[in-house]
Amino acid sequence: MDKKIIFWSPLISHVGTINAVLKSALSLCNGSNHKIFVIDVLGEFSNINKDEFKNIIFLKIFNVSKYLPKTGIFSKLFLYLFSILAIPKLTFIIFKHKPDFIFSYLVSIVPLFLGRIFFKKIKIVCSIQGYPKLNNFRLLLWKKLYSRANYIITMTNKTKHLIINVLNYNSSKISTVYNPIISQKIKLLSYEKINESDEVIFKKKVIISVGRLTRQKNYLLLLEAFNKKDIRENYNLLIIGEGEDRDKLEKYIKVNGLTKSVYLKGFCLNPYKFISKSFLYISCSKWEEPGHSILEAGYLNLPIITSDCPNGPKELYIHKKNAFVFVDNSLEDLYLKIKDFEKTNSCKLYQIKLEMKKLTKRFTNIKFNIKVNEIFDKINN
After folding, report:
1. Residues 6, 96: contact at Cβ < 8 Å?
2. What is the mean pLDDT of the chain?
């Protein structure tokens, strides 16, 4: 039986969770004919192409994200403030549309609170998109609130076990379910031509990395590895993303004379046209869950070098099976893995890329639909 489902995921900055929410909503809308509502809490979905999501109903509450700080403590404070201010409108939306389920990705305290007090018949599924850092206050809050969730979805098994063991959550009400980020659309977008102004980037073989310019992505380590003479002479480096570390990275690039070989492209609506034309993808992240850009690059047939950081990379990527894996935050080992990649023969490299393509099949609409509809059945029974 088709369901009415509300997606709740208040965000300020353009992070991977936005893509995960949209693709999950679209997957359930198209694959199972559920009626989908996405709450646009702060205007985080204002700039998307609504034609692509014409079967999804977007319900706006505020349109303030463009005016708010994207990083730091004030960003978090404003996120929680506007999520709380959204309660009256969200309550009205729930009364009006009478959903069967609420999918909550972030600031789940709001739907969990409303569900406990006013909407006890509505089932709440909490999707935890990252590995939670539980200080004493947060641990107490999560124990109190997440026990009210009808079901919890995690991105990795490590997070699942944390929720079970630390929060004493019922193991029959939690599953690892991967976001449906891999689709044919990525392949189609990869065929788009790049602008003439960007062609200079590809006059050498290109190492590429995609993600926000933040401490998490550890781009300074990537720049330090690229700055080795035998690397910078043979490659250009393209980094796609925006964030608070831009000034720090630009300074390193300028001081080390890398302005003609390192390109900070900024945020790009279609990174796939650059990924598909590149030679190698490198992720130096300090943590990922599970690393969507890595998987998208693997789907586009790029060989991958990744750190063995928690949680996703440590769980999903095996050295010389589906990727080249270096010791987290080790410049020496990253350099060695780049050289290891260069020495790998074409037959072995083909097998590694093939195994990565097999891995990406876990992150498709079909897999997501099957697992989520099984969860719906389990909750209703």
Report:
1. no
2. 92
